[in-house]
Write a structure and sequence with these properties.
5-stranded mixed beta sheet, 12 helices, 31% helix
Length: 334
């Protein structure tokens, strides 16, 4: 592990088989969290493109979903959209817990038609899929973020205290007049890439007060500060020590790095579900997979009336993690 990315060639020249910079890896993971171009929220949606949309929605204070739960809200029945994941306590839960309280600031990942996503958006505030990504800070992590966003074709605005190449707006990020000059209020996300956790804590509070509904993603130096930074207003925070620990586990112990969870959409045969209603077989409860659509005679069906039955010639479109698909195969066959 090397703190300075520029010293990686020197470390390898000195005999290191592999040399990693946790700062660069941290930047890549935060970029993937901010941009769906870098890391799609749900892989495989192109199977039903343009019929299906993926949206992230942030529950705001005045939302009817605030302090309710997915079980009480019955969102699939009421809107037609399937909530396939939720960000809570810095982790993506898929499937989301049906009885967990939906607190203001929680982010839901939903899949559905444009109409069903619109209906869900009326209950929770949708996070824009277009717009600028604002990076506050321009150290190793900030530079990596700006590079990745630019390479992905994203609109990026970098704010830093010094006028150096790559910086768009010069100023103190704790000064609201600087936030006025940066497109913070209209940002798709604000990413905090500051050099100290104390500064990140203060800036998270300032940005959250300035733009209450803008998603805030933060880099932290120490693991023990992640929870504090989230409490200050960040929706998602990740520390260098978490990244370094995962990389060491992967290369020394052979354990998988799992800092970026993945939800996928896949087309499967009905197996043991033939003759049953897609929402009445406790598929989600037993496996973690959600049925988002059924293909029948070339037609894609998203609405399942109470008398709907899956036939042996149908195909199902399921959303879930790899582990959820494994449980589905065990429960209902290939």
């Amino acid at each position: 592990m090397i703190a300075n990315p520029n010293r990686r060639p020197t470390a390898q020249l000195a005999g290191a088989t592999v040399a990693f910079s946790p700062n660069h890896i941290l930047g890549a993971l935060l970029a993937a969290r901010a941009s769906a171009r870098i890391h799609p929220r749900v892989a495989g949606v192109q199977l039903l493109d343009p019929l299906l949309e993926v949206a992230e929605l942030r529950i705001h204070d005045s939302s009817p979903l605030a302090h309710s739960s997915l079980a009480k809200a019955r969102l699939r029945t009421e809107t037609g959209a399937s909530v396939v994941g939720q960000w809570s306590d810095n982790e993506l839960q898929s499937p989301p817990a049906e009885d967990q309280e939906l607190t203001p600031g929680m982010i839901l990942v939903a899949v559905g038609t444009s109409d069903s996503i619109r209906r869900l958006s009326e209950m929770a505030r949708p996070i824009p899929r277009e717009g600028p990504l604002v990076v506050l800070g321009f150290g190793d992590v900030g530079r990596k973020l700006a590079q990745l966003f630019t390479d992905a074709g994203e609109e990026v605005c970098v704010v830093f205290s010094d006028q150096i190449p790559g910086v768009d707006i010069v100023g103190d990020v704790l000064d609201e007049s600087v936030l006025d000059r940066a497109p913070v209020a209209a940002a798709r996300a604000v990413i905090l890439a500051l050099e100290s956790d104390n500064a990140t804590l203060l800036v998270a509070k300032v940005v959250r007060k300035y733009a209450p509904d803008v998603p805030i993603i933060a880099a932290a130096r120490a693991l023990e500060n992640v929870e504090r930074i989230q409490a200050a207003g960040a929706d998602f925070a990740l520390s260098v020590s978490q990244v370094a620990g995962q990389l060491l586990s992967h290369h020394v112990l052979g354990e998988a790095v799992s800092l970026q969870p993945r939800i996928k959409l896949a087309k499967v045969p009905p197996g043991g579900l033939a003759g049953r209603h897609p929402l009445a077989a406790e598929i989600r409860e037993r496996t973690g997979c959600s049925v988002v659509a059924v293909e029948r005679k070339g037609e894609i069906l998203f609405d399942f009336p109470s008398d709907f039955e899956i036939s042996g010639d149908d195909a199902l479109y399921l959303c879930g993690t790899d582990n959820a698909f494994s449980r589905y195969r065990e429960a209902f066959g290939e």
